[in-house]
Amino acid sequence: MDKTPDQKRAVQYLYPPVDPFDRRMLSVGQGHEIYVEQCGNPDGIPVVVLHGGPGGGCSPSMRRYFDPEKFRVILFDQRGCGRSIPHASVVDNTTWHLVADIELIRETLGIAQWVVFGGSWGATLSLIYAQTHPAAVRNLVLRGVFLMTQTELDWFYGGGAGKFWPEVWDKFTALVPEEEQGDLIKAYHRRLFGDDMLTQTRYARAWSGWENALASIQSMGHMSEGPGEYARAFARLENHYFINAGFLEYDGQILAQMDRIAHIPGVIVQGRYDMICPPESAYSIAKAWPKSELKIVRNAGHALSEPGITAELIRAMDRIALT
């Protein structure tokens, strides 16, 4: 969902491409192996990148938000997506498995404390990880905040965002019988987890296409047809997490537990016109987080690759490099 036409304009802010100095598959238990890579300076400030989705996977462009001379950058594909195996699997795949995986990566790499950098679902996971393991987190840098609440799900899958994009919303809902349109997450779940692979892929492309169409402020509403394999992992994992309310104990849990990370410095970068994760969530955690700094980008939506968002994230990391 972060692959948008803005990338060419945002590239002026990015650091040059860099290759990993370490790539590995890490066994995390329950039959899952996750892809982990490191790039930059092995002796630099450690930073772990938590990608969006769930199910999005990391990409080479994510390496370029960090000064390679100052940071030791760790990227990984969460369970079931990217290069991690088994692909598109939701078995033993919950928020708490992912939190344990992040901690296993930290311990395996011998890191005492690190910066946690995440956007969208990656911001959700960053906050939950930090609230669970606050002593392991040096700084938090978040983008496009999503708090895994029912209100946010209702906005995006219940017609709120659709009021701004009615023609795209019609395409997304048209695949579901009218009598099932009251709960689109559940309706898509039936098709994404049915026995027919062609049906899974068709609905996966529609699910991911709806999100991708609204990611950038420059969007023309085109529901792009991505690779079926990627779309299937993205849609199945995202739907699995959403139908289970992120596996949280109660609605609003992240905001209610912000006191656990009150001492951790943080930067929140939020697009003013984010249709996927509206600014209300970023604003609410900023009010509850004394050591946070909220940067609302004027002409930006949700995508990582939008120029204003890219610039603010790199500024935030460059400031951390000086501390």
What would you say about this model in short?
The protein has helices spanning 7-10, 95-108, 121-132, 150-157, 166-174, 184-192, 197-213, 228-243, 253-256, 280-287, 307-321, and strands at residues 22-29, 32-40, 45-50, 71-76, 114-119, 137-143, 266-271, 292-297. It has 323 residues and is an alpha/beta fold.
Give a written overview of the molecule.
By secondary structure, this protein is α/β, with parallel strands linked by helices. It is built from eleven helices and eight strands. The chain has helices spanning about 5-10, 95-110, 120-130, 150-155, 165-175, 185-190, 195-215, 230-245, 255, 280-285, 305-320; strands spanning about 20-30, 30-40, 45-50, 70-75, 115-120, 135-145, 265-270, 290-295. Strands 1-2-4-3-5-6-7-8 form an eight-stranded mixed sheet, with helices on both faces. The longest helix is centred in the middle third of the chain and has 17 residues, at about 195-215. Mean pLDDT is about 95; it is low at about 1-10.
What's the β-strand tally? Answer: 8
How are the strands of the largest sheet arranged?
Answer: 1-2-4-3-5-6-7-8
Helix content: 25-40%
Low-confidence stretches: 1-8
Derived structural class: alpha/beta
User: SSE order, as H and E?
Assistant: HEEEEHEHEHHHHHHEHEH
What's the mean pLDDT score? 95
Radius of gyration of CA atoms, rounded to a whole number: 18 Å
The 3D shape can be described as: globular
Q: What fraction strand?
A: 15-25%
Number of helices: 11
Task: Please outline the helices and strands.
Layout: H1 7-10, E1 22-29, E2 32-40, E3 45-50, E4 71-76, H2 95-108, E5 114-119, H3 121-132, E6 137-143, H4 150-157, H5 166-174, H6 184-192, H7 197-213, H8 228-243, H9 253-256, E7 266-271, H10 280-287, E8 292-297, H11 307-321
Parallel strand pairs: 3-4, 3-5, 5-6, 6-7, 7-8
Antiparallel strand pairs: 1-2, 2-4
